Amino acid sequence: MRLVTALSLSLLAVAGLSAQQRQPPTPAVAIRNQFNYVNQKVLEMAKDFPEAKYSYKPAGDVRSFGDVIVHIASGDVYGAKAGRGENVKWDEMDPKDFKTKADIVAVLQKSFDEAAATLKSTPDDKFKETLAPWLAIVEHAAEHYGQLVVYYRSNGLVPPESRPKKK
Q1: Residue 119: C-alpha distances to residues 27, 42, 46, 133, 148 (Å)
Q2: pTM value?
Q3: pLDDT, tens digit, for every residue of 25-60?
């Protein structure tokens, strides 16, 4: 009888842990995860894309690959400032201020790090009130991630996320 009781209690404990693991993330966890996920993918693309193709534009009236990366960085800068409660407007960084791939990757990395630090330091309870500005920043980066995928494909390249994964 003791064995049956112990086994039953063990099964209930395992079921309880399993149910806890299936709980959806809190808004704070979800927004932080999504921000990091999309920005890491963009950063990987910025590092991976050939420097000789950073000026590539699929059409004359759109941003080049490098310009899109700087534009995404501008969004992260806005997010960091707004997330800290600063009275801020969107200040578009001028891509002409960043001459090389290394310059562009560095500004993206810096903007990502600053925004991630602000997001991490934001109290979880704040996300019960609003997801602003973070939801918009995540959506912005994700939209441009899709644009960058087209730039890869237009150049006969496979985006990092679409490459076979090493086991």
Answers
A1: 12, 18, 22, 10, 25
A2: 0.85
A3: 999 999 999 999 999 999 999 999 999 999 999 999
Query: Alpha-carbon distance 117 to 57, whole Å?
Result: 32
Say how many CA atoms lie within 13 Å of 74 toward its Cβ: 16
What is the rounded CA–CA span in Å between residue 143 and residue 150? Answer: 11
8-state DSSP, 49: S
Domains of the chain: 25-159 (1.20.120.450)
Place 10 in a pLDDT band, splitting at 50, 70 and 90: low
- How many C-beta atoms surround the C-beta of residue 157 within 10 A? 17
Residue positions counted in the chain: 167
